[in-house]
Write a structure and sequence with these properties.
With 210 residues, the protein is of the alpha/beta class. Helices cover 29% and strands 22% of the residues. Strand 6, helix 3 and strand 7 (114-120) form a beta-alpha-beta unit. The longest helix has 23 residues, at 182-204.
Length: 210
């Protein structure tokens, strides 16, 4: 398609979402697509939430330690300000950004920008996470990638939190999370519920030696 006024080819804007549990290769796929765009001599810019400093303050880094330079941001509105004259915009850990990201991605795509988004589709409780459900709804392409359940070897469904912490946003790695399939996750939830009940019952028993 050619722009009527400039006579130059019009860039086809689109939104691509790569989602799944932790350890499923989301960031790896994002980096792969961004590097292919670089090889094609396209102007690229990648953004990540400023709170994600697990491997690097300035880079997007996969669990396999592949990395690409990025711009940390606190608000999705910063993406519009920092992505002028860009062909491809990448966004990692999109679940941590605000709901304004949906409008930002739509606006970029409508300008002719290719937007590639990676993020967790669900939190550790299996609840849809942040702007990810809405981003999947407006995307031209959605790819759901899967980790392997560490307990049975089937495809993982959710990221199970291994530490006692009720905060929804808790950055972590292998020591804090494990990928589980639906069946193993349900079993794990039952075991934890039974353990909490036993602990509560023990705590409420009178001390006969006082």
């Amino acid at each position: 398609m050619t722009d009527f006024f400039s006579g130059e080819p019009q860039r086809p804007g689109r939104i691509e979402v790569v989602c799944g549990s932790m350890f499923s290769g989301k960031t790896e796929e994002l980096i792969r697509r961004m590097k292919r765009a670089q090889f094609a001599k396209q102007k690229v810019e990648i953004f990540k939430p400023a709170i994600d400093t697990r491997y690097s303050d300035e880079e997007v880094v996969s669990h396999d330690r592949h990395a690409i330079p990025s711009t940390p941001i606190d608000s999705s509105s910063s993406i519009l300000l920092l992505s002028s004259d860009i062909d491809v915009v990448g966004i990692d850990e999109a679940q941590f950004l605000d709901m304004g990201l949906v409008d930002v991605c739509n606006e970029l795509a409508n300008r002719g920008v290719r937007v590639i988004i990676a993020g967790l589709d669900m939190d550790y409780k299996g609840v849809p996470f942040g702007p990810m459900p809405a981003l999947c709804a407006i995307a031209d392409e959605v790819v759901k990638v899967h980790a392997i359940c560490v307990r049975c070897g089937n495809l993982a469904y959710v990221s199970h939190r291994l530490v006692k912490n009720d905060k929804r946003v808790l950055l972590g790695e292998v020591g804090e999370y494990e990928p589980l399939c639906r069946v193993c996750y349900q079993k794990c939830m039952e075991e934890e519920a039974n353990g909490d009940a036993e602990q509560s019952a023990t705590a409420s028993e009178p001390d006969l030696f006082t």
